[in-house]
Input
Amino acid sequence: MNDLNMLQDLGAARDPATGEPPPGLRHRVLHGFDGPAPRRRRRWRLSPGWSLATSAGLVAVLAVALIAGGPDGSGPSGRRTEGVLTASDLLLRAAQNMRADTTPPPRPDQFVYVQSISAYPTNPARIRPVQPKMRQLWLSADGTHDGLLRESAMPGGPPASDIIAEAPLPGCRNGKAAVVDQHWKVHPDQLQDCSVDPAYRADVPTNAADMLRYLRGKANDHSDAAKFLEIRVVIREKYLTPGQLAAVFEAASHLSGVVVVPDVVDVAGRRGVAVALSVPASDPTGASPPAKASIWQQQLIFDPTTYAYLGYQTVAVADVDGHKRGDLLGGSAALQNAIVDRAGQVP
Amino acid sequence: MAAALTSVTADEATDAAVIEASRRDPALFGVLYDRYAAQLYRYAHRRLGAQLAEDVVAEAFAAAFTRRDRYNVAYEDARPWLFGILTKEIGTQRRREVAHNRMLARSFAEVTGDDLADRVSAEVTARAAHGRLSAALAGLSAGDRDVLLLVAWGDLRYEEVAYALAIPVGTVRHGSTGRAGRSGHRWVAPIQPSFSRRGHERPEHVAGSRRRTRSGDR
Output
């Protein structure tokens, strides 16, 4: 295989999944042909002052680049020099930071400790907006050990109505787990069927391409919106290795419709910068094109200076269904993620 | 013929005839979209990924539409012209194209594990090569990347690349021999030793429009 063939092979690997332009593009393009006014928003740059190389030269250029150009090789640098941070920039920067982390994953007998301030719409009819509460989870890494959940009201805040002070999370062994009754009391002598739910899965992809396929496999449909919404499910209250989390962010950087919200406040009251996708109410999966105005928006929130992942939330972006624009509909602000040896142990 | 062009006959008309007719009937420009949108989108998708591909293709068609009055109808095939316009749009996203290539380089590189069976599998070998190539693309100058990818991914011949980018064909000595006579290609205009700055469009200043290049092409 010569260099040109290799390059063509790479091109084929980068083709759009369907091989076709997005269905909305035709309308977007042709719509502009009726009106008289051109919609150009910027001037073209003049042609660069270089010449077409010879055919041999082209391959030489490629060969030199193959030798000299590493992933961090030369080229225009400084993603933020233009002053506008795009969703893609933000996600890639967050991913880059994750890649630098070499923390080893948990052993099967260990526990993933997840501490967060979370707000869930457990009873949306009664409580608007939702009340945040402190949440501590010890999740069995392999799903076979007994985990634990503790919740408490926010200090100084209004009492949340649906606090679970302490709940056992029985491990699933040989397809059976101990029964937990409605008062959160465990009955070790009564067993019920279960399926193992490990907090850490080694088979979650660590590169963007496989992560996109992974998200597509879990999402309700093949739309980018459905994939973005699925991200929350994949990362919340689980252990993802830095490489897996980086792949999530890299995958998200390829999804269309994702925008930057420059200044958000998370459930814990921290300021952050978010990447977000807005979804119409009638279609919580985001499956169909947004024919109706969006009424809620899912945000993935990052620290504005370090780009560390802070958590996610869903907020109303219109006054509808008894919600006011800006209301929190649910979310989770990550305070601490750690690996510990036993349930109940605080790092 | 062009004056009588309708949506019905547009299917058989040359690109040049379609563009000429679209100067009076803008809706006919949609014929060009249907002919070339898929390949332009695929090319943009390969270079920039899904998120930006749609935008640059839309911008390219909008730009082509506003510039259709200046299209030189001596060139029946509008493909190189459209690819040239698309290349300029992609050029406005140069920074993000480099980031895209680097990201793909990293993700392709991820698959090379330590397991011997994995490392020798064909898929991993191919993907590792893809990673190195993506990294190499990120390291190229924008001009070199345009030329290389118009040939490799846009399937343009060297004269067409020169034409699309409005650069001197200059030192291309053998480019036209290797791939000439491809079936289905409507390259009818004579190959000129050099092109005006505006390439596919009618030169507005014939005198003094030659572009001097730093590599000393004649």
